[in-house]
Every structure is written in structure tokens, then in C-alpha cells.
């Protein structure tokens, strides 16, 4: 009986103490002083530009750090009705592929151009995962300047990573596919499916891209990559998974082997082999789209050929480094000596030593080969393993002070560890399921070790809920001290996969403020209001229109018939910063335009029904913006309304016929 | 007729050199500042041109119905260079003659050109500030937009500052030299 009483008392004690034994609250992680660290006062600029991939929205968004304020969305692989990208006659061709216009994509990774392993603020490269493409964005204008499609690739995932001087941008395929368009059974994967690593040459002065060569690798999934730097300058490293070469239920079948590979490619050698004619030129169709800033016109060229390099014909070009287990990130430290493979299913982080890799290659000390490619011995090339770092290591960046920071997808945290002794130094939670993380310049020779951004996959409870789908999330940490400190949550557009950031000074002062109208080389430019005209040619009507605060010329157009193809070529005559004009016409199923000062942009409109269609400026440009409008009269097909147009004194005057009609 | 002193003779090439600045630098500048123009706007008046942010200022003026400012509308840009050219030639003649009386006359011509320029500049500003398009979209009762001849003025949300620029200062210094030398010569009689 006494025992029972004791038991009851103990149970009561437990019950009473239960409510006080609270679980950790997710909101409690921010310490005092965080707000002042991210506060950017009105009129002050952010310290960094942060470029964030848009994932399934196909765009790139630009944020200021540390404030987390959204500055701009750059349409890259997706049409963008906001400014007519992909809709205007000038930009339509940017989205051309061998499959016609592909107006969307899945944009995963970004890379800022570098010189000597440091960011130079010239270009930003972006990949398209779905329809394999690589884009170059010009950071003077924040516009997409070029898009190159890639043949023999599917799931352009390990892309776009660059060499130290932006000599090459690489694009490794995620889904292995047969080369060309062979019709083969899927079950012949091992025999017929290949993965390719494409090397895109970047012209050092113009940035123009061209597909230099493609290295044909065994069928497997290339995941991420990074170029070497310093001593490892000549090398590129790609992580891989599914070296099991499974083609169904990969979730199980591609997770069987204890180790996959990091593929080490000597791109200098590859370049030499390509020059020496060791490659095989094969027919391949792919689109190359460029935006000519002078002509303000995108053009598409269909390329016909690619150069394939087979490792069999090119000794010492490709090696395999065993890496546990399904590595995702493949990250090179600022010195270029350490290669961090993040086996996303491994319970440790292997760190490889470049000098040991070189020794092993020299000694030809291999443990075998993978479809002809030599495999180095894991223990020979290992610098060491970070033990028990957390669950699901994905991606590592560096602070330039000898520390590495690895995102842990499964355990939702960032783990800081030392490259020297591989000891874990600190860990902080993320909210939740962090994918990539980013330190400004964290994958260059000179990281800026002040901030770290975690790009998270799930945001439960971080923001006001918005239905089943919640805001996408990034989190900013101060990493300047010994302990990492969460200082800001900021929502992002689209699903952020990876980001890049650089000091604002690298970019800010080089911005194009407006286009010099005297250099406007668009074939449909209208130089001044005196030169506006409307020209009919068959059922094509070209309207040469000008826009300036606060009117469009002409603002009265008659003599257009149902079914005509009307091209509005609108030239913005302004020559001042931040005075774009918009152009939209009622019922146009196409889009609208946003025309920068000094620019000419063309909108196609095909009226389907008769009626008066107002058109107007869509960007609030001046006190008289609402007045900046006009009318297009669309008459029935076959009617004989003459072509007339004008503004003010030259507006079409009533004719005798009009007067009669009105009566 | 008395000869010029050494000072008087030296002053002539100095003045001519200073006036040469009129072809190298702007004479006058009008600065405008408003919240929506964080960098400010500047109009620079040269001896034969008007430069700076004129297109932007013209863009603004369309709200209030001010005429478009354009170089072609100013006969001053032809007259003034000619006048200054003639004045320079006269200077050389005065130097060659080396006499006091021509120097006084030369100074007088300068004063006339300067006075006329200022009057003309004022009239020009008055005309632009007052002769507004009756159909202008924005009409503020009793409001005129004449910038100050020299100095500061608030025009609606714009702060306007009008002052000499590099060549203008050279011109002013020339005037001071001419006047002081003329007085000096008169006293040394």
C-alpha cells in the first residue's frame, strides 16, 4: 500500500512538472541586437547584392544584404508579362530551343564571373535544369544577354560553375541519356546511356559563350561541381550519384553502393586534346540566343555540331575519386587544396587533399576502373573525415579563416567546422531543411566571411501563413564571431536553390542609367516625334510610336482591320534614369511592354474583333501618367476606313463621311 | 594723349587671356534641387551654347507650359561671341596704341557689353518664367517660374541657385581689372 502511494505521488509529481518542461520554441533562436545588424536606414544602401536562383519560376531574384529587401526579379528562362520579356518581338528569340520556344524552366544554380579566383562583378551565369541551357546575365543592365542550349544533356544540374578566370562555364548532366536522339530501350541504360560534362568557353572581353567540347562519361547522375583554384586551377570536380546505373526506383536502387564518385576532370588537358583533334565532331542541334544591345534584338542561331571527348582517347584527363554516399556538394576551399564531398546519405563529411590526389595519380595507384576511367583509392587521397557532423550534409562554403560551413538537410542545421583538424566548432538550427548555403564569395579565393545565408526548403511557422503554399525562405546568419547567430528571415521568390553575393561596390557604380538614344540601333526606332508613322504592308501594320512624359505619338490610329498583325514599335525618348514607359492595349492576349529610356521595344497585337481599343502607359511615369493614352480604331475586315494617325494638331480630323455616319 | 603705364599695358593681355576662358568653360550655372532629383539638375550657359541637364529640365517644364529651351532659339549665342571677338581685337589695337584714352573707351565698351548681357539674361529669364502656355496642364494662380538672376530662390518644390561659373568668374575678374586699371591710369595722369 505504501508502495502504491509512493508510486501515485511520483506520478503526480511528473504530471505537475510536465507543463513546465517546455520544448524549445523556434522563435526563441534570435538574440538581442539582431535587428540593428540588419537594419539599413532609409537612404542607405545594402552592403551586398544577393542573387538567388528562382527554382521552378525560372527567374533570378536580387536581394540586398543584410536587409533582405527584394531589389529586382530578372527574367531569364521564363516569360515575364511585367516587362514583356519573352513576349516582345525583341526578346522572343531568347527562349528559343530546338523544341521551339520553351518559356519556363527550373533554375537552380548561379555563379558570378571571376578573375583570378575573385569576383569581378561583370556577369552572372544561371542554369536551366529542365531544357538544358546556360544563361549569361549582364550586370551593367541586369538583363539576360545570352542563352546557350546544350545537346546531349538532360537535367542540366551541375551547372553553371566556372573556372578561376571564367575561362569555362561547365554544365554536367543529371539524367544520363543516349547521345543524340537514339531510340533505345530504357533497360539498355548501362550500354547506351551516357552522362556528359559540357565545357562552355567564355570570351574574356565580351562574355560570349560557345560550346567548346563535351566529355562523355559513363551513365550516372552528375550532381554538382566546382572548379579548382590556385594549385588545383587546371581541374574541375563533379559529384555524382547513381553510379549503380539504376534506371528505375532510384530512391532505393541508386542508394545501394557505399560510395559514389567525385569525377576529377583536367580541363587544361581536355582543352589540349580538343585542340589536338582527339575529339569527335558529331552532329548536334542546339540553340544559341544572344541579345544584341546595339540593335536591341535577340537572335537565335541553331548550332549544328558538337565536339565529344572520350576519356578512352584522352589519357590522364578524367579520374574517379570514391566518395560516400551520393555526394551532393563538391566544394573547393579558398586555398584550392581541400575538396569537400558532401555525401547526402553519409554520416560523415569526407575531405580530400588535392596534393594527395596528384600523388596518387602520379603513382598510378588505382583500385580499378569505372567503365575505363581509373578510380583512385579513397584512403590515399583523403585528408580526413568530419565525424558526426549532422544528418544529410549537402553543401559547404568557406569563410576564408580556415572554417567550413556545411548545410545539413535532414537535421536542419548549419555546422561550422575547421578545415585544419576537421573538428566541429559550432552548429545552429535552420528553419527548415536547408539546401544550399552561401557566404558572399564563399566559393572563391577571397570569401567575405561576414554573413552566411541558408536557403531553406520548408518554412512552416516562419511567416504569416498563405494557404497550403508558404513563402519561400532564406535566413541570414552573422558568422563574424566564434558563434553563428541567426539575424534575419527573409522570404524569397520561387524556390531558392543556390545564391551568390558580392560586395555592392563591384556592381553598383557600373549600372547603365539609360540607353543613349543616339546609339539606338533598333531597326524600328523612331528618332523624335516628327518621325512617327504608321505603315501598312498587306495585313501587316507597323506603328512607329514614341513615348515621353506624358504622351504617346501617335495617340489616334484609324484604318486597322480585324485580323491585321499590328506591330507597335515604341521608342522611349526619355534620357533620364528610372523613367521607363509602359505600353499596353486593351484585350491583347500577349503581354505589355516596359520600355527603358532610349530603348525601342515591339509588341505584336492581332485584333480579333472590331471596336475602339484604348492603349496606354502602364508604368506610372509622371503627374500626367493617367493622361498618357490613345485609341486604336479596329474596323471590320474588308471595310474601307483609310489609314490615318496623329496626335494633337495632326490627329485625324473628322471627314465628311464621319459626319454623315455620326448623323 | 598720355601713354599707358606699364601696369596698364600688362593688364590688356591678362584680360584677353581671362576672356579666353569663355571659350573653354561655362559662364553661368543654374542649379536645381528637388526630392525626386537626388543628384540635382544643372544647366550651364556657355558663350555659344546651353548644356547640362537641359533635356530633363525641358521634360519638367512641360507640366507648367514653359517653352522648350534649345540652343537654336538664342541669337545671343551668335552675337556674344562676335561681340567678345571684336572686343578682343579692340584690346590688341589699344595695346598697340599704348594710350590712355583708348583704354578708357575699351573699358567703357566692356561695361556696355556686360550691362547689356545682364539685362538680356534677365529678359530671357523673365520671358521663360512668365510666357507660359495657356493650355499648360498645371497652372498655379499667380505663379511665375523666373529663376533668380543671381542667388537663391524657391520655385514650387525646386530650390534654384543661379551663379557665375568658371568663365563667368574670369569675366568678372576681367571687369575688376579693367575698372581698377582705368582708375589707376586716371590718377597717374
Automatic annotation (TrEMBL), chain A:
**Main subcellular localisation:** other
Checking Gene3D superfamilies in the record gives: Cupredoxins - blue copper proteins, YVTN repeat-like/Quinoprotein amine dehydrogenase
Family annotation (InterPro entries) = Cupredoxin, N2O_reductase_N, Nitrous_oxide_Rdtase_Sec-dep, Nos_propeller, NosZ/Cyto_c_oxidase_sub2, WD40/YVTN_repeat-like_dom_sf
Q: Which GO terms describe its molecular function?
A: metal ion binding
Name the domain of life this protein comes from.
Bacteria
**Under the cellular component aspect of Gene Ontology, which terms does the record hold?**
cell envelope
Per the UniProt entry, the signal peptide is 1-22
Task: Tell me the compartments it is located in.
Answer: Cell envelope
Q: What is this protein called?
A: Nitrous oxide reductase
Q: Which organism is it from?
A: Chitinophaga parva
Organism classification, top ranks?
A: Bacteria, Pseudomonadati, Bacteroidota, Chitinophagia, Chitinophagales
From TrEMBL, chain B:
Q: Does the keyword Transmembrane helix apply?
A: yes
Keyword line: Membrane, Transmembrane, Transmembrane helix
**Record-annotated membrane-spanning stretches:** 12-30, 77-96, 103-122, 166-186
- Name of this chain's protein: Copper chaperone NosL
Q: Which organism is it from?
A: Chitinophaga parva
Amino acid at each position: 500500500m505504501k508502495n502504491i502511494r509512493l508510486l501515485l505521488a511520483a506520478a503526480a509529481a511528473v504530471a505537475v512538472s510536465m507543463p513546465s518542461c517546455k520544448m524549445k520554441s523556434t522563435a526563441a533562436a534570435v538574440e538581442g541586437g539582431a535587428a540593428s545588424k540588419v537594419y539599413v536606414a532609409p537612404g542607405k544602401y545594402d552592403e551586398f547584392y544577393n542573387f538567388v536562383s528562382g527554382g521552378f519560376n525560372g527567374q533570378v531574384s536580387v536581394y540586398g544584404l543584410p536587409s533582405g529587401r527584394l531589389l529586382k526579379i530578372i527574367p531569364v528562362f521564363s516569360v515575364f508579362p511585367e516587362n514583356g520579356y519573352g513576349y516582345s518581338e525583341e526578346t522572343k528569340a531568347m527562349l528559343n530551343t530546338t523544341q521551339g520556344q520553351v518559356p519556363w524552366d527550373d533554375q537552380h544554380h548561379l555563379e558570378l564571373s571571376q578573375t583570378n579566383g575573385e569576383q569581378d562583378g561583370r556577369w552572372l551565369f544561371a542554369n536551366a535544369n529542365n531544357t538544358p541551357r546556360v544563361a549569361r546575365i549582364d550586370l551593367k543592365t541586369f538583363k539576360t544577354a545570352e542563352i546557350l542550349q546544350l545537346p546531349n544533356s538532360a537535367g542540366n544540374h551541375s551547372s553553371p560553375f566556372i573556372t578561376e578566370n571564367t575561362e569555362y562555364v561547365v554544365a554536367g548532366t543529371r539524367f544520363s541519356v543516349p547521345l543524340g536522339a537514339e531510340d533505345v530501350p530504357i533497360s539498355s541504360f548501362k550500354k547506351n546511356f551516357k552522362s556528359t560534362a559540357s565545357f562552355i568557353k567564355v570570351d574574356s572581353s565580351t562574355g560570349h559563350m560557345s560550346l567548346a567540347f563535351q566529355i562523355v562519361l559513363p551513365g550516372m547522375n552528375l550532381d554538382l561541381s566546382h572548379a579548382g583554384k590556385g594549385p588545383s586551377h587546371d581541374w574541375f570536380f563533379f559529384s555524382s550519384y547513381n553510379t549503380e546505373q539504376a534506371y528505375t526506383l532510384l530512391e532505393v536502387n541508386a542508394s545501394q553502393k557505399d560510395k559514389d564518385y567525385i569525377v576529377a576532370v583536367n580541363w587544361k588537358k581536355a582543352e589540349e586534346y580538343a585542340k589536338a583533334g582527339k575529339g569527335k565532331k558529331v552532329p548536334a542541334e542546339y540553340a544559341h540566343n544572344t541579345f544584341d544591345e546595339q540593335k536591341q534584338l535577340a537572335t537565335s542561331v541553331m548550332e549544328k555540331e558538337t565536339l565529344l571527348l572520350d576519356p578512352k582517347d584522352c589519357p590522364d584527363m578524367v579520374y574517379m575519386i570514391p566518395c560516400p554516399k551520393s555526394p551532393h556538394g563538391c566544394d573547393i576551399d579558398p586555398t584550392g587544396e581541400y575538396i569537400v564531398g558532401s555525401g547526402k546519405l553519409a554520416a560523415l563529411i569526407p575531405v580530400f587533399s588535392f596534393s594527395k590526389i596528384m600523388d596518387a595519380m602520379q603513382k598510378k595507384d588505382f583500385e580499378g576502373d569505372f567503365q575505363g576511367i581509373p578510380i583512385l583509392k579513397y584512403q590515399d587521397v583523403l585528408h580526413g573525415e568530419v565525424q558526426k557532423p549532422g544528418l544529410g550534409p549537402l553543401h559547404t562554403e568557406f569563410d576564408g579563416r580556415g572554417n567550413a560551413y556545411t548545410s545539413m538537410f535532414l537535421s536542419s542545421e548549419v555546422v561550422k567546422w575547421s578545415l585544419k583538424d576537421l573538428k566541429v566548432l559550432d552548429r545552429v538550427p535552420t528553419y527548415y531543411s536547408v539546401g544550399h548555403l552561401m557566404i558572399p564569395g564563399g566559393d572563391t579565393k577571397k570569401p567575405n566571411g561576414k554573413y552566411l545565408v541558408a536557403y531553406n526548403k520548408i518554412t512552416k511557422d516562419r511567416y504569416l501563413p498563405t494557404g497550403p503554399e508558404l513563402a519561400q525562405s532564406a535566413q541570414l546568419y552573422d558568422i563574424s564571431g566564434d558563434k553563428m547567430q541567426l539575424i534575419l528571415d527573409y522570404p524569397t521568390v520561387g524556390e531558392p536553390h543556390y545564391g551568390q553575393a558580392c560586395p555592392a561596390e563591384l556592381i553598383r557604380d557600373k549600372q547603365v542609367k539609360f540607353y543613349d538614344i543616339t546609339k539606338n540601333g533598333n531597326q524600328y526606332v523612331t528618332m523624335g516625334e516628327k518621325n512617327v508613322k504608321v505603315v501598312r504592308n498587306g495585313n501587316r501594320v507597323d506603328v512607329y510610336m514614341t513615348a515621353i512624359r506624358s504622351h504617346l505619338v501617335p495617340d489616334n490610329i484609324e484604318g486597322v482591320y480585324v485580323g491585321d498583325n499590328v506591330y507597335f514599335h515604341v521608342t522611349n525618348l526619355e534620357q533620364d534614369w528610372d523613367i521607363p514607359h509602359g505600353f499596353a492595349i486593351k484585350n491583347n492576349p500577349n503581354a505589355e511592354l516596359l520600355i527603358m529610356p532610349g530603348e525601342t521595344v515591339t509588341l505584336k497585337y492581332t485584333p480579333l474583333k472590331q471596336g475602339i481599343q484604348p492603349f496606354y502607359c502602364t508604368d506610372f511615369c509622371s503627374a500626367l501618367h493617367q493622361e498618357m493614352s490613345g485609341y486604336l480604331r479596329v474596323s471590320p475586315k474588308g471595310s474601307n476606313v483609310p489609314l490615318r494617325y496623329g496626335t494633337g494638331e495632326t490627329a485625324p480630323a473628322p471627314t465628311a463621311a464621319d459626319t454623315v455616319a455620326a448623323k | 594723349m598720355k601713354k599707358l603705364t606699364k601696369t596698364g599695358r600688362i593688364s590688356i593681355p591678362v584680360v584677353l587671356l581671362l576672356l579666353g576662358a569663355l571659350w573653354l568653360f561655362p559662364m553661368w550655372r543654374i542649379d536645381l534641387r528637388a526630392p525626386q532629383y537626388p543628384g540635382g539638375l544643372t544647366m550651364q550657359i556657355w558663350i555659344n551654347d546651353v548644356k547640362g541637364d537641359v533635356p530633363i529640365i525641358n521634360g519638367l517644364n512641360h507640366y507648367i507650359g514653359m517653352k522648350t529651351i534649345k540652343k537654336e532659339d538664342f541669337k545671343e549665342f551668335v552675337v556674344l561671341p562676335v561681340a567678345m571677338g571684336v572686343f578682343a581685337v579692340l584690346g590688341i589695337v589699344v595695346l598697340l596704341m599704348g594710350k590712355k584714352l583708348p583704354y578708357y573707351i575699351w573699358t567703357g565698351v566692356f561695361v556696355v557689353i556686360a550691362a547689356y548681357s545682364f539685362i538680356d539674361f534677365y529678359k530671357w529669364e523673365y520671358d521663360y518664367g512668365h510666357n507660359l502656355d495657356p493650355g499648360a496642364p498645371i497652372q498655379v494662380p499667380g505663379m511665375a517660374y523666373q529663376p533668380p538672376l543671381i542667388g537663391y530662390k524657391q520655385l514650387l518644390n525646386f530650390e534654384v541657385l543661379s551663379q557665375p561659373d568658371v568663365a563667368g568668374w574670369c569675366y568678372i575678374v576681367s571687369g575688376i581689372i579693367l575698372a581698377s586699371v582705368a582708375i589707376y591710369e586716371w590718377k597717374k595722369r
